[in-house]
C-alpha cells in the first residue's frame, strides 16, 4: 500500500514548481488523514508547517526549496516514497511563551526554535531574569536575550554566540544579545524543566518586544517561558542526516 502523502509549499516560485511536479507524480492527499506531510520551502516555512499541523499528529518531512534548510532534507523528485519509508523521526517539544504587555494583556504562543526579547527603541533594554521563581540576574543591559531549544540552538542562538545543544541534552540555552552589562556574561545552560521569566525594567523608556519563532508581541513588561512537553512535533530526516548529526556537524564548519 502506497503512502498517503500531503504536500504543502511556500509561496516561492521554486517551491510552487516542486509542489506541482511532486503532486503529479505521487498524488496529493488532504493533510488530515495523511501518513506524512511533505513541506517544500525553507526553515521558516517548515516552522510554520509544524505549528499549523501540530494537532494532526502527522510527521512532517521537509525538502529544501529555501536557503539554509537546517530542518530540511535535500530536494529530489525521485524515490520519494522509499525515502519516506527509510526516514528517521525526531520528536521536538516547543517552548511555551506567556507575554504580558503594558496594558495587561497576556499573549500565549509556542516556539520550536526560541523565544527572544529585543529592544524596539534607541536605548538598550534592561532585563531582570528569574529562574524557577528565583531572581538570578537583577539587571542585564543588552539589545536582547533569548531562550533556545536544542533544535533551535543553531539558529538565532548560535548567531548570538550561544552554544549548540545536542538534541537529547534536555537543556535550554539562555543567551544574551549584545550584552553591555554584565559585559562578560556568557549566558547559562538550564534544565529543560526550568521556568524562565524576563522582567522588563524601565519599559516606557526602553521598550521591548517578544518573539516566539515568528509571532511578535510589542511593549511587553514580562515574559514567562517554559517547555511544553505535552506538545510533540514529529520531524523526519533521511538516514544519517538527522538532527543529532546536523547539530554535531554544524560545530565543525
Short description:
By secondary structure, the chain is α+β, with helices and mostly antiparallel strands.
How is this structure best described in words?
The protein has 5 helices and 17 strands. With 253 residues, the protein is α+β, with helices and mostly antiparallel strands. A hairpin with a 2-residue loop joins strand 8 and strand 9.
SSE topology:
Elements: E1 5-9, H1 13-26, E2 36-41, H2 43-52, E3 60-64, H3 80-86, E4 88-92, E5 95-101, E6 106-111, E7 114-119, E8 125-131, E9 134-142, E10 144-148, H4 156-159, E11 171-177, E12 188-191, E13 196-201, E14 208-212, E15 215-217, E16 220-227, E17 233-237, H5 243-250
Parallel strand pairs: 1-2, 2-3, 3-17
Antiparallel strand pairs: 4-17, 5-6, 5-16, 7-10, 7-14, 8-9, 8-13, 10-11, 11-12, 13-16, 14-15
List descriptors.
253 residues, alpha+beta, Rossmann fold, Tumour Suppressor Smad4, 2 domains, six-stranded antiparallel β-sheet, elongated
Order of helices and strands: EHEHEHEEEEEEEHEEEEEEEH
Overall pLDDT: 93
> What is the name of the CATH superfamily of the largest domain?
Probable inorganic polyphosphate/atp-NAD kinase, domain 2
Number of strands: 17
CATH third-level topology of the largest domain: Tumour Suppressor Smad4
The CATH C-level class name of the largest domain? Mainly Beta
Distance between the termini: 41 Å
Largest sheet: 6 strands, antiparallel
- Helicity level, as a percent range? 10-25%
The shape is elongated
The DSSP helix count reads 5
- Our count of domains comes out at 2
Catalytic activity: NAD(+) + ATP = ADP + NADP(+) + H(+)
Family: Belongs to the NAD kinase family.
Enzyme class: transferase
Subcellular location: Cytoplasm
Amino acid at each position: 500500500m502506497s503512502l498517503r502523502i500531503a504536500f504543502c509549499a511556500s509561496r516561492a516560485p521554486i517551491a510552487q514548481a516542486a509542489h506541482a511536479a511532486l503532486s503529479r507524480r505521487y498524488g496529493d492527499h488532504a493533510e488530515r488523514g495523511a501518513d506524512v506531510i511533505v513541506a517544500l520551502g525553507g526553515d521558516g516555512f517548515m516552522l510554520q508547517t509544524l505549528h499549523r499541523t501540530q494537532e494532526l499528529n502527522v510527521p512532517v518531512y521537509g525538502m529544501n526549496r529555501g536557503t539554509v534548510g537546517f530542518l530540511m532534507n535535500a530536494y529530489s523528485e525521485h524515490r520519494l516514497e522509499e525515502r519516506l519509508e527509510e526516514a528517521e523521526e525526531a520528536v521536538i517539544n516547543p517552548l511555551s511563551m506567556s507575554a504580558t504587555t503594558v496594558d495587561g494583556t497576556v499573549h500565549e504562543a509556542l516556539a520550536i526554535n526560541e523565544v527572544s526579547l529585543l529592544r524596539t527603541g534607541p536605548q538598550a533594554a534592561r532585563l531582570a531574569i528569574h529562574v524557577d521563581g528565583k531572581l538570578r540576574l537583577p539587571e542585564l543591559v543588552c539589545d536582547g536575550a533569548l531562550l533556545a531549544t536544542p533544535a533551535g540552538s543553531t539558529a538565532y542562538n548560535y548567531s548570538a554566540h550561544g552554544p549548540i545543544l545536542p538534541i537529547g541534552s534536555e537543556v535550554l540555552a539562555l543567551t544574551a544579545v549584545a550584552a553591555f552589562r554584565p559585559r562578560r556574561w556568557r549566558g547559562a545552560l538550564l534544565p529543560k524543566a526550568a521556568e524562565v521569566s524576563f522582567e522588563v525594567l524601565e519599559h516606557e523608556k526602553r521598550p521591548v518586544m517578544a518573539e516566539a519563532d515568528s509571532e511578535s508581541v510589542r511593549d511587553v513588561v514580562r515574559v514567562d517561558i517554559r517547555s511544553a512537553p505535552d506538545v510533540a512535533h514529529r520531524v523526519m530526516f533521511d538516514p544519517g542526516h538527522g538532527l543529532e548529526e546536523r547539530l554535531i556537524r554544524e560545530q565543525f564548519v
